[in-house]
Write the structure tokens for this entry.
Amino acid sequence: MRRELVARASGGSHDAFAELVEGSIDRQYAVATLILRDRGLAEDAVQEALVAAWRDLRALRDPDAWDAWLYRLTVRACYRQANKVRRRATVEFIAVTDPEAGPSIDDTTGIVERDRLERHLGRLPIDQRAVIVLHFFAARPLTEVAAVLDIPVGTAKSRLHRGLESLRAAMQGEPEARSGRAEERMA
């Protein structure tokens, strides 16, 4: 089905392109938000990526590669946005679960941990952050992450390793992490 939509869209069908975008825009926006840490910049990056996708759709050789190609365009647009604006933004957590459900009492520990992770993820260099976001949040294999970022697989692996090591070190060095471990040992 997607192959047919890509073929129709590359032939100029606005409806087919709109259907393709509708099926992937939420994922693109979530990835852009996690990479850029700013909703406005993420919206700009996704918009830029979608304009580029429409403009260059005929250059897509393999219709089955639509998702990876659109991720590549989105990540590149994120890089351009980050280069334009060199400022720290407030980190916002994009909930993967139902946002209307709200957290239960049992979810509070998870929310605190996700907030800590988001805070430290935002401090990583954008190259490491992009690999981590695509691999863990977008659930892409490292080979596809490397293809999306147009880097060798070894480079993607090393960026992932360095980013995870930085996250571990930063999270273990926090006072609340140390006091939480001390409480666990005493119990």
Remarks:
- The chain has one domain: 2-186.
- DSSP finds nine helices and no strands in the chain.
- Residues 2-186 form a domain with the Arc Repressor Mutant, subunit A fold (CATH 1.10.10.10).
- The longest helix spans residues 14-36.
